[in-house]
Design a protein that fits this description.
The complex is a heterodimer of chains A (about 325) and B (about 325). By secondary structure, chain A is α/β, with parallel strands linked by helices. Chain A is about 35% helix and about 20% strand. Chain A contains 12 helices and 14 strands. Chain A is globular. Classes of the chains: A alpha/beta (about 325), B alpha/beta (about 325). At the A-B interface, helix 3, helix 4 and helix 5 of A face strand 2, helix 5 and helix 6 of B. Chain B: Its cofactor is thiamine diphosphate.
Chain lengths: ~325, ~325
């Protein structure tokens, strides 16, 4: 590895977009402020694209989320591969009809005659005191929608690899960018990462922590602490939420007999419920206890710093639950 | 309107042929539904036949259209294969969508019939995206968005028209103002007297025409389509008309103004055009009767083939959700 391959998540996604647009002329980018005239995105993720590929392929749009996703769907049905940005995940509530009723369903409703190969990039994550409408995790809405795929990288290498796979994918993919991880550097190998394949971020034998985005790093930190007490925790980074890697999770669960699913979305009706259920249904009798869940508190994301910290999962909460499960 | 191009005799006869196909097809569907042989939600286009028949006279096979749940007239005018349409209405595996879409999601990409939506207001953003694709392709293709007066009050109308005008996309927005949005009259939904007046607010031409008049409708559509093909951007056409069978087949229609309804019936565009063809010597009574008989025979054949075909296998529940079959 050389230093040139070291980048943060912003750089990795930017590189993936550059590479995809260079290799395939049908790849398009659109969204609010994505053009260089608007500074290449509010966080600079799309920097350089409009200058390099022109404003026919890179559309810096009005604040029009329905038209952004609608235009992406139309262009996709017309043979292109648009990457649409919805700046923050909360704003995705605005074009939900376009995503849920159209992008996700057109392939099925047309009997396979049309498909919608779009990527919807969006960022989110608590930690910056942005309050109730700027930092929610809503991945369960989309994982619950037949026809949608959902990926959520936790590091720059996965961000590059998953973005390339998402653009290649013939179906709509929601690409969730964890805002607080944007500036954490890492090695980027520029290899595609298949959608639906998890990664064992740390091997362990006593307990399995299944997470994505924020909770992967928290799981690794918790595992480090638990090791001091002689508890060996395996950390699985889902990378893909829909479809998720059942094989990898069940295989780890079979080995450890204990599973915690942790995510930043509120616990109730979250993806942890689905994953824990599948683990419990498949491994009942083999487990040393039921699979359990950690999520955010069941309330809108609060503003005040102590409240925001108490709201979200953290390494200490994961560690405490692991110790409780070890008995 | 006097400076609009007029349809020649051959085109006028073709408009009648298409409109008669729409009318007979509608009457056959209603007959079968009333007999309990066809079960589906049905939004009859009776009374609106002239609009798409006159528009399609200036469209090519590879031009795109998007339409809505009340859209069988738009599809037939675009050349939707009758056999595949009937098989879809009957829920058969030979249907254009393999029986998975039904009347509200009929799709036929090879005739440019890209998306049919059951959501009011959702044809416009997607047609805008198809316009973007058409512009990128550089083949002078255009994209038509069909929608009703109700959809003109949805936010997506605003976003789409603004975006299409901003990017000078080859989109023709055709608002078929049939005086009612579900059960609410146009007067009860809109402070302004025409929808076309809104075009000025987006920086595009807007015109209101009598959609039931083949000369006006053909002329306005041709001007807009030629303008789009020439790269001069979108147009909003408001085509006034009336739906004879209310919103959803089977409703009471009690909300409709009786005088307005009676006047619309008296102004039924179908017998008017038929009489005009004879009076102006464009076609003889015998020639028109032969055209109508030929259409009847085509519908007979399509209907029979549809009901003779098998229903789809339940394996279809796993297909076309994604490109890869669900295991």
């Amino acid at each position: 590895m050389t230093d040139t391959n070291k980048m943060d998540m912003i750089g990795a996604i930017n590189a993936a977009l550059h590479d995809a647009m260079t290799e395939d002329e049908t790849v398009l980018v659109l969204g609010e402020e994505v053009g260089d005239k608007q500074e290449g995105g509010v966080m600079g993720v799309t920097k350089g694209l409009s200058t390099k590929f022109g404003t026919d392929r890179v559309k810096s749009t009005p604040i029009s989320e329905q038209a952004i996703i609608g235009a992406a769907i139309g262009a996709a049905v017309g043979g292109y591969k648009p990457v649409a940005e919805i700046m923050l995940m909360n704003f995705i509530a605005v074009p939900m009809d376009m995503i849920f009723n159209h992008a996700a369903k057109l392939r099925f409703m047309s009997g396979g005659q049309t498909n919608v190969p779009i990527v919807i990039r969006t960022m989110t994550g608590s930690g910056f005191s942005t309050g109730g409408q700027h930092s929610d995790y809503l991945e369960a809405w989309f994982a619950h929608t037949p026809g949608m795929k959902v990926v959520a990288p936790s590091n720059p290498d996965d961000a590059y690899g998953l973005m390339r796979s998402a653009i290649d994918d013939p179906d709509p993919v929601l690409f969730i960018e964890h805002l607080p991880s944007y500036w954490t550097p890492g090695e980027v190998t520029k290899q595609r990462i298949p959608i639906g394949k998890a990664r064992v971020a740390r091997e362990g034998t006593d307990i399995t922590l299944v997470g994505h985005s924020l909770t992967v790093g928290q799981g690794l930190a918790a595992a480090e602490e638990l090791a001091k007490d002689g508890i060996s925790m395996e950390v699985i980074d889902l990378r893909s939420i829909a479809p998720w890697d059942k094989e990898a999770v069940l295989s780890s669960a079979r080995k450890t007999g204990r599973v915690i699913v942790a995510h930043e979305a509120v616990k109730e009706h979250g993806i942890g419920a689905e994953i824990a259920s599948v683990v419990n249904e498949n491994l009942w009798g083999e487990l040393k206890g039921p699979a359990r869940r950690i999520g955010s508190a069941f309330c809108p994301v609060p503003f005040s710093k102590p409240l925001e910290e108490a709201f979200a999962p953290n390494a200490a909460k994961i560690g405490a639950m692991a110790k409780d499960m070890m008995g | 309107m006097s400076n609009y191009p007029k349809p020649d005799n051959e085109t006028l006869l073709e408009i009648y042929r298409t409109a008669n196909l729409i009318k007979q097809n509608d009457e056959r569907i209603i007959k079968l539904m009333m007999a309990g042989k066809l079960v589906m939600p049905y939004y009859s286009p009776r009374g609106q036949e002239i609009i798409p028949s006159a528009v399609s006279a200036s469209l090519e096979d590879d031009d795109y259209i998007c339409t809505i749940y009340r859209g069988l007239h738009d599809m037939l005018a675009k050349g939707f294969p009758l056999d595949e349409m009937w098989a879809e209405l009957a829920g058969r595996e030979t249907g254009t969508c393999k029986g998975k879409g039904g009347p509200m999601h009929l799709t036929c990409p090879e005739r440019g019939m890209m998306v049919t939506t059951g959501i009011v207001g959702s044809s416009m953003p997607i047609a805008t995206g198809l316009g973007w694709a058409a512009k990128l392709d550089g083949k002078n293709r255009v994209s038509v968005a069909n929608f009703g007066d109700g959809a003109a009050n949805i936010g997506a109308f605003h976003e789409s028209l603004n975006m299409a005008a901003l990017y000078e996309l080859p989109v023709i927005f055709i608002c078929q103002n049939n005086r009612y949005a579900e059960h609410t009259s146009f007067d009860d939904s809109s402070k302004v007297e025409t929808i076309s007046i809104r075009a000025e607010g987006y920086g595009m031409p807007g015109v209101t025409v009598n959609g039931n008049d083949p000369d006006e409708m053909y002329g306005a559509a041709k001007v807009a389509i030629d303008r789009a093909r020439a790269g001069e951007g979108p147009t909003l056409i408001e085509a006034t008309t009336f739906r004879f069978n209310g919103h959803l087949l089977g409703e009471s229609g009690a909300y409709m103004d009786k005088d307005l309804y009676a006047q619309a019936q008296a102004d039924d565009p179908m017998p008017i055009l038929r009489k005009r063809l004879v009076d102006e010597g464009i076609a003889s009574e015998d020639e028109i009767a032969a055209i109508e008989a030929d259409i009847t025979a085509r519908i007979d054949a399509a209907q029979k083939a549809a009901f003779d075909a098998p229903f789809p296998d339940v394996i279809e529940l796993k297909r076309d959700v994604y490109a890869e079959e669900i295991d």
